[in-house]
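Z., the sequence and structure:
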Amino acid sequence: MRSVDARPRTPHLPRIRIATLSITADARRTASISQPTPEQMMQHLRFISAASVILLAAGSTAGALTSPSANTRRASLPPDTVRFPDGWGFPAGSVAPVTARQGMVVTTDRVASEIGAEILRRGGNAVDAAVATQFALAVVNPEAGNIGGGGFMVVRMADGTTASLDFREKAPGGATRDMYLDSAGNVTDRSLVGHLASGVPGSVAGMWEVHKRFGTRPWAELLQPAIALADGIVVHERLASSLSRNERILHAFPATSAVFLRDGRPLRVGERLAQPDLAATLRRIAEGGADGFYRARTAELVEAEMRRGGGIITAADMAA
């Protein structure tokens, strides 16, 4: 993960290389870094979403932590605690602590984190930063950050206001119990790859709803950085590695081949990635809010592509 300090800098979005990242932010602008206990971490958790994490520190703890050895952790856990395999955790001391006074953004990509931190510098709150970061991740982290998926969100604001939101995808109206089975009743990969794998997206609706309730910056302002990224970015190492790992799947579809491959191979570090269709979609979302995605042109395009590729999502599903 990459962390970015949100202390004031120049008023413009910085020119930065792309990398993966997440977000944390202090609602009272007074965060400092220490090594909190798990109980303290839960006390200070303020915001979580599928694509980004916002920690609004109500007291004095937030940020990157070092941890005890795996053996020590296992010995201290109660019997009913879920245990993860050895090697899954970061070794103690392997991650440098990041400190910040006014907020922090942490995601899988540094560009997305920088965008969230800049929103904080401009006076936006943690929800504003999360919205901007979510859409930025749709561009720079296409295998995870997206507008075609969904997630969950838990919010606690500086004044103690709390809320939760489930914006996971929903099954299309035409979905059936056995749609992922072959004629012999065996499970296929259709739930993982292809048009049938898609549910009706919830990400845009989730961001729209949380912004309506808690956001302070203009909606279109929060979309603009993602639009600029979709118009064209320079591929960085994490993105290039992801494209390389998924090369076989990218070759399977003309649209992904056209965008993410060059001369039949994945884009490499330093090459330019432009996603004009995504940029146009983000512009419609910026202009029309949730309706700019779930109705009209975007919904029509989704239905047309589903018909072409054997999917079942319709414009009516999108608008439901």
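The chain has a mean pLDDT of 80. The chain is about 40% helix and 10% strand.

Let me know what you think.
H.
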